[in-house]
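request received
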Amino acid sequence: MLAYIVRRLLILIPTLLGVSIIVFMMLRMTPGDPAELLLGERATNEALVEVRERLGLNEPLHVQYGLFLKRLAQGDLGETIWTRQKVWTEIRERFPATIELAVVALGISCVVGIFLGIVSATRQYSIFDYLSMLGALIGVSMPIFWLGLVFMLIFSLGLGWLPISGRLSIGVSIETITNFYILDSLLTRNWVALRDVIWHIIMPAVTLSTIPTAIVARMTRSAMLEVLRQDYIKTAKAKGLSNFKVVYKHALRNALIPVVTTIGLQFGVLLCGAILTETIFAWPGVGKWMYDAVMKRDYMVIQGGTLFIASLFIFINLAVDVLYAVINPRISVR
Amino acid sequence: MTVEAVLGSPEIRHPLLEQLSQLWRNKTAVAGLVIVILFIGAALLAPWISPHDPIETSLYDQLQPPAWAEGGSTRHILGTDDLGRDILSRIIWGARVSLLVAVVSVSLAFVVGTLIGSLAGYYKGTLDNVTMRVMDIILSFPYILLAIVVVAYLGPNLRNAMIAIGITYVPRFARIVRGSVLEESEKDYVLAARSIGAGNLRIVFLEILPNCLGPLIVQTTLSFASAVLDAAALSFLGLGAQPPTPEWGAMIAHSRSLILRASWVMTFPGIAILLAVLGFNLLGDGLRDALDPRLRD
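response:
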């Protein structure tokens, strides 16, 4: 087991290097002077000279890449073009909002998806099965940026139930400790803020959870069907266990193994979806920040944000693989 | 299938056709096929079937509601947008743009991915290790982020969106083909081909690859679904088709400011995207059931 984890960690090194090469090369391959791209059109000549000097833009490519890696190793992602702040500081400010949204969305996906999957599998070919699988198919085909707008139209503009955008109403204040607003309002026992935060997160989280919910439901259903066909389930039934116990205790445990992997991989899908969802709902997270950067051509932000999200994605996938090996003792850890 | 059924059939059909004929028994797959045909038909016949010009603006016809709503007319069945453009016509022409993006980007991924995958699977060793590591690296970017970044650097237009989507889809094809080729290359017929003196390239592309078509067809169909979706998402973000191109995602983006006054402007392009993607997904699922029995649940 340890050997497996060590091996996976070793594979991480070339993968992360590869990601850094791609991010490094993108700026260099973009038509135009990199220093000008990085500083924007307003840059003075002195600043351009300074940046060329500091990033070694006059040096050959491999030297530039070496300097790039060195700065990365020191945790230096540079300064943004527009706000002149450290890229890393901006990521740290916005990241909790994205994670909060993604975790709530993933929570919705797990609960709804697993429930739909189990019920569909235990009642295969019933009306419920057909409807939920049709729903799941529509879910995976859903343009979520459109769904978000439809939700807005119905629940905010039409019925007035939910706030249209943002993370918090004006006038509601939160003492930020972790920057996870749900957590912060719980910690400070600020119930007014908690209600407001939950009110704001419902619509973006449900929108974001659409595709993962559908995928989890389909995965759970097929995993459950596979398990329910096996002999030990017949044995469990034969010895007189209640249907509930057979399904939820004996079958579900084994069926969940592939489902856990699927759920883990959905985190990446959520980070992708976050760019769309955050943009629509003006959610102040990393996704919207990246989108704004693309619109403003802030290459430092694009570069730093891409590196950050890709690394995060790699680590999550690694964690999922290791977790999979841990929960499934049958996996051959070669 | 029973033994009698096999022995009793007078003609022996190609196994791939045999498997494809199962598709007809799958009602959802046929539904998917119908949607896909309608979509492709709309795309191909756009100049003849669309009632109005998709780009021409008309000051007198601004924000006409759909025909069945109050104030609507049959002249504009799905209504018009704020520039007086007919929404139905724009959706029909939009099918053309979506189909174009899907065909170009998926073909790009198909060709490059199949080439990489088959060579990696056949030659194994270092080539396999290196190429698959590169595929892992591409896969380690959340794909829409990669597409957004590529477009951000190359510049926002439809051609770059197609390139970006194509690049992000290469690994799926490469991995599937590599897996199938690895499996197939161990089989006796490959040995037989080699023993009669067939060259490596001939063995890979003419002997082995045709046997890997099943999973490839499935992947291509499902990739069409995601390409339509991703192209719409990129255009929605302003990184794909630029105005006044009638593109579904761009139409939704344009209609955001009208959401209160004219919800139909936003509604119909979204339904079009949903239906097109659903069609390809249904067909892809059906094909998977028919062609790849291992994946059947």
